[in-house]
Amino acid sequence: MQTPSELKYAPSHEWLSEDGTVGISDFAQDQLGDVVYVELPEVGRIVTAGETVAVVESVKTASDIYAPATGTITAVNDALSGGPELVNSSPYEDGWLFKIDVTEESAELLSAEEYAAANN
Q1: Domain limits, the chain
Q2: Fewer C-beta neighbours within 10 Å, C or N terminus of the chain?
Q3: Is the pTM of this model over 0.70?
Q4: Which parts of the chain sit beneath pLDDT 70?
Q5: Residue 101 phi/psi, 5° resolution?
Q6: Residue 78 CB partners (closer than 8 Å, separation 6+)
Q7: CATH number for the domain running over 9-114
């Protein structure tokens, strides 16, 4: 399982980068199986940490995606509308979900080491 050390992780398996990019972890995409659809939030939406902001559907199930921080959605990954499988093949690069202008991070965010230990 890849767990890039420069990212912070929510217990619900979302990751947050320094620049506000959000996606789901390698562990999460592996548990979901083949992703077939991604419902993304609207740009400009103000969200609160822990709020449901997106949905990822796989052949197995649909999973809510929670905001790892409070702030405003500034961008979404439009490439996922035509290629939701990017979430599986590149969860930390091409398969990112959305970007948020962070005003406050969730107090529950974990370091890469803490997240990896919790999911082994």
Answers
A1: 9-114
A2: C
A3: yes
A4: none
A5: -85, 100
A6: none
A7: 2.40.50.100
